[in-house]
Inverse folding.
């Protein structure tokens, strides 16, 4: 343990600690958080939110169809708007057609923004080696009296993340009340 003569006083340190405690106090008053092993929820400056791993967020509308043969990778909600990400087995082209059909069967009107298409990108590296990556994607919007759903799906011939398994593509949906526009 240091003796009294070896302690170095640092001017301003006490003020910095007091300031930090004050900031924490203000933030605590403006927000509330609940953190669990599978997600987080709370309120920050009047905005309610939740985010979860491997499940849909609390309150996700049951009338919004989920892709057939999918796994939920995660989801989030903020003030009644929802996002969800799925991993789906198969091809983007077949998956887009099946998911559009599922929305139509559930009473949604579907507007196709981008039909399934494939793009190849080739780039050369520093050592004159080239790599070609194939991207396949599709987007559409589905609307009913309650919800507007923006659907984006795609795959890549190159590993982009660890959540998708071989033979899967990703689907992201944004769900907002029908009176809103997905952002």
């Amino acid at each position: 343990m240091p003796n009294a003569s070896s302690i170095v006083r640092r001017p301003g340190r006490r003020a910095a600690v007091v300031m930090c405690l004050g900031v924490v106090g203000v933030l605590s008053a403006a927000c509330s958080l609940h953190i669990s092993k599978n997600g987080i929820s709370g309120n920050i400056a009047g905005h309610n939110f939740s985010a979860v791993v491997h499940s849909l967020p609390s309150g996700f509308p049951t009338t919004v169809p989920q892709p057939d043969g999918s796994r939920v990778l995660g989801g989030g909600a903020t003030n009644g708007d929802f996002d969800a990400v799925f991993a789906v087995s198969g091809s983007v082209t077949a998956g887009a057609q099946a998911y559009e059909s599922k929305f139509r069967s559930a009473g949604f009107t579907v507007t196709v923004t981008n039909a399934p298409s494939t793009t190849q990108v080739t780039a050369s590296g520093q050592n004159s080696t080239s790599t070609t990556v194939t991207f396949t994607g599709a987007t559409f919007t589905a609307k009913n009296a309650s919800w507007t759903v923006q659907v984006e799906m795609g795959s890549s011939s190159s590993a982009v993340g660890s959540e998708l398994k071989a033979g899967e593509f990703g689907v992201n949906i944004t769900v907002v009340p029908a009176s809103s526009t997905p952002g």
The two ends are 57 Å apart (CA to CA). The CA atoms of residues 4 and 10 lie 14 Å apart. Residues 1-30 have pLDDT under 50 and may be disordered.
